[in-house]
Amino acid sequence: MSSETGPHENVSDDKNLPSAQDASGAEPEVHTNPFADPGLAPHDPRIQDIDERAAKRSERTVAMLFTVSMLATLGFIVAYAVIPVDEYVYIFPIGRISAVNFALGMTLGVALFCIGAAAVHWSRTLMSGAEIVQDRYPIGAADEDKAGALAAFGEGVRDSQFGRRKLIRTTMFGALALVPLSGVVLLGSLGPAPGTKLRHTAWARGKRLVNENTHEALRPEDITIGSLSFALPEGLEHDDHSFQKEIAKAALMLVRLEPEDIKDQQELEWSYQGIVAYSKICTHVGCPVSLYEQQTHHVLCPCHQSTFDLADGARVIFGPAGHPLPQLRIGVDDEGYLMALDDFAEPVGPSFWERG
């Protein structure tokens, strides 16, 4: 008995037959891992690796860059010493700029650029160009791993040809030794030493204490217990061109305490009827001290919370301030106004190098 068959009657299970591509004689498709490590590409030697003359040219190029860096550093020093600070030049498209600033920027930029360019050219043409794969080790390496690291470092030094290329070595040391001189020279722009300027203020014997807000001379009865008042020296006006410079040293605060509450003997002798006068300038970084606690007689600097005890010589009881607030010795004149009996006995404000 016959039976009808469809178009696939002669096709068996397709997994047992080769594909049509195989039947045609083509190579079967191979599926590979697209993320597999391809390994290192073959190393192509550079011209400097096979031609010593090319290596010498690279060596001279590196040495030339280091030499230009040295010359630029010397130019920086000369420009700083020779070009006047008030001389200007026109540079297109920047415009009119300070000649000394332009010269310093250009010479220092060339000096640093040449050092970097020399290092890059050295590494790309003379140091070993072969890629090396190094396994990552745990933090606590074994002794043999440490020895291997030292050996690899030594191999790197040999590959850099640092010992062989004396011209490069000499010029590199010269460039690196001269560049820091740029910073040393700039120390001269810090200005002259302060001398005695920081040791004297606008206060002097006989100068009245003037209210900072009303600009009226203060009497003892104007200072009440528990209040904090601010004063400036008589004759110092806000419209003076030197006002800001002088008030930065002469700013004064006044507090009235009960005489029996004052613990420091000198503070008591330098006060008047319990009125004590201290510098308003914090001895940490010079912020204005302005927060007063009546019950504790403490005054607080709002910048970094340095706290001073006004009943005990304004000594530091908390915070980063380095020494107590200087006290101004005060009294009254013939007309009953508060006046200074002298300048501050020590410099006001933060410490400085010459303070001693």
From TrEMBL:
Pfam families: QcrA_N, Rieske. InterPro entries: QcrA_N, Rieske_2Fe-2S, Rieske_2Fe-2S_sf, Rieske_Fe-S_prot. One of its GO terms (cellular component) is plasma membrane. The chain crosses the membrane at residues 62-83, 103-122, 167-190. Residues 1-16 have a biased composition (Basic and acidic residues). CDD domains: Rieske. Residues 1-46 are annotated as: Disordered. It comes from the Bacteria. Keywords: 2Fe-2S, Cell membrane, Disulfide bond, Electron transport, Iron, Iron-sulfur, Membrane, Metal-binding, Oxidoreductase, Respiratory chain, Transmembrane, Transmembrane helix, Transport. It is found in: Cell membrane. Its main location: membrane. Residues 244-339 form the Rieske domain. It is a multi-pass membrane protein. GO terms for molecular function: 2 iron, 2 sulfur cluster binding; metal ion binding; monooxygenase activity; oxidoreductase activity, acting on paired donors, with incorporation or reduction of molecular oxygen. The cytochrome bc1 complex is composed of a cytochrome b (QcrB), the Rieske iron-sulfur protein (QcrA) and a diheme cytochrome c (QcrC) subunit. Belongs to the Rieske iron-sulfur protein family. Iron-sulfur subunit of the cytochrome bc1 complex, an essential component of the respiratory electron transport chain required for ATP synthesis. The bc1 complex catalyzes the oxidation of menaquinol and the reduction of cytochrome c in the respiratory chain. The bc1 complex operates through a Q-cycle mechanism that couples electron transfer to generation of the proton gradient that drives ATP synthesis. This is Cytochrome bc1 complex Rieske iron-sulfur subunit.
